Structures are given as structure tokens and as C-alpha cells.
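BUG: 3D viewer hangs when loading the predicted structure for this chain

Environment: internal workstation, default settings.
Expected: structure renders.
Actual: progress bar stalls at 90%.

Input used:
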Amino acid sequence: MLKLIEETRAVSESELQVNNITPYHVTKSHCEQIVKSGYYDQLKYIVEPSIREFDGPGTLHRSGEHDNTVVPGLQHKYAQNGILLVTERCGSYCRYCLRKRIVGKVSDEIAPDFGRVAQYIARHPETTNVLLSGGDPFVLSTSNLNKTVDHLLPIEHLKSIRLGTKMLAYAPERFDESALSALVQRIHRAGKSPIIIAHFDHVGEISSGAERKVRALRLRNCTPCARSSLKSTMIPEILAATFAKCHEIGVRPYYLFQARPVKGGSHFQVALGRGLEMVACICGTTRIKFPRRWVRSFPDRTSRQPAGWMICPNNEICRTPSSATNMERLRYARRPTKDIQVEPPAAALGRQR
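C-alpha cells produced before the viewer hung:
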């Protein structure tokens, strides 16, 4: 029997495999947090399976990641960035995950040879940072993370090592380990910036434990940034509160990512027009510095580009042609916003709950 948000139903193992249903797995601490937060009716959509995962459109390959893989486990889609897949496991499995094809499974897309990865990066001086991803690198032992970092620290032109994680939300106790603090300090002493890309989708995920761990990381020369995903289940005022909370505890809002129409998660996708309204509502709700970009990544392009729009530092929302170059986008960004219809906050709250 599989407990879904809508119902409990009998589902065979073969049916789960045919439909590529991501396993249900949530940490004990997160189960407690989403109830204690008072936001269970909103947070349940992030981690609990839905019947809509069985009949939604889309494919498992929505990012062109295979085409951008240069050595096993390393993607080099953007000139300055490398994405290193270090595990296919996570602390909990998000139902909208863009890598449903690998998470919770045994995958050959995970880097088997970090020495070979380092050799590639060493030959590409334009690559100035590497993002450890997967999966979630913090489900690995600190010893294993050190072994990965062993290969990256000697590369002189590598200026920062980023670690993308949702463990600050799912299991903040993971950051209690003294060896993890030592790893952060080790990266810093090597002359590189250790950056934690914390994935917070909802203010209710930011527990008091997560707050304490963030403050401790900042004291250890680690830069915490936050990313969020724009989803159909999201209430704009709640996302604004999430960014405000991140700002309060010292986590810099980094970017807001458009949910992709991946198979099993396409029901989370927001139409661009509706997304524009939601983001305008968020900008009007908060006075903090908004994430630099709201972005959708195109698999057939060599740079992450806004899908017809971008968010500017002064909170203006500007429409841009999808074919615009980066310089053209900057020129568009200086233009004033016109004719953007923003749904009143009360209407948004009433319709999405």
C-alpha cells in the first residue's frame, strides 16, 4: 500500500518502476518540523507522493545533462561552473526533483573517478568554481567529502567550492559534526571560498536548529546562500517570508529556479505568465534584496538564461525576448516595468490554499 496525499492505494513494485516514481523517504527531524511549523498542509507537497505523479506529462531528461557531461559525473555547461555529481541519495526526496532519473536509485551518472574529474578541470582555467551536487553531498560522510576535496584544492584557478544541499532543512543536526567544520576551514585555508547553497522552499522549513547551524557556518568563513524553486503549490507571500527569513539569519537569497516539466513532477510547473504575477507579488511584499535572477535553464544552450524575463537588483521585472544576448538583457533590465498585472495578496492566498 502506498500512502498518497489524495488517498491510500495498492501499487505494485512494477507499477512504481514503470512510472518512475521517486521513493518516499523523509527524515525524522523533517517530519517533526513540518508538523511543528504549522504549515503541514503546504509543506506536505514537497515530500509526500501524489497520485498526479502517475499520469503527468514530461520526460526524465529535461536539462540536457547528458549532453553536457564531459567526464563521468562532471557537467560543464557553463564556462565558469562545473557540476559534480557525488551521490544519488538525499536526506529526503523532493517530489519535484529535476533529477528523478537518478535519485534514490543506483546510477552510473555519479562520478566514479575524482582524479579524472580534477584532470579535466585543471585543463580548463575558465572553470573557477565547482558545485558538489547529486543527490545531496551532505548525506555522504565528512571523510568521503574530504576525499573529494583532496582532488580539487590543488587546482589553482578554482576559486570556490560550492555544496548544494537541502540538509539544513531536512536534517540540520548533520552540521553538528566537528569534522565538517574542519572541512570548511580546510577549504578556506587553501585560498578558496566554501559556499553552502542551502535549498529552502518554505519559511516553515527553517527550523531553530537550521538557524543555529547557519550562524555557526558563517562564523567558520563559510558563505551560505539560498535557492528556491517556483512551484504551483507555492503561495507568493510565503515565499517572500522565506526570503525575508533567510536574509534575517544571514543566508543571501541566490536565485529562484523555475520547476521543470520532469516526468512525475510536471504538476509543479508554473506557466510563465502566472510566474510573472507571482514574482511581482513577492517583490511588492518584501523590501529585502530579492534573488539576482529567476531563471529557467535551457538544455540546448550554453548559459542559464531567463525564460523571457529577469529580475533586476532594484526589483523591477522586465520582459526580454528569449533570443536576447546577455548584453541585450542588461539593456532591457534598465527599462521601467509596465503593464504587469499583480494578483492581490488576499486572492492569491485564498486560491492556492
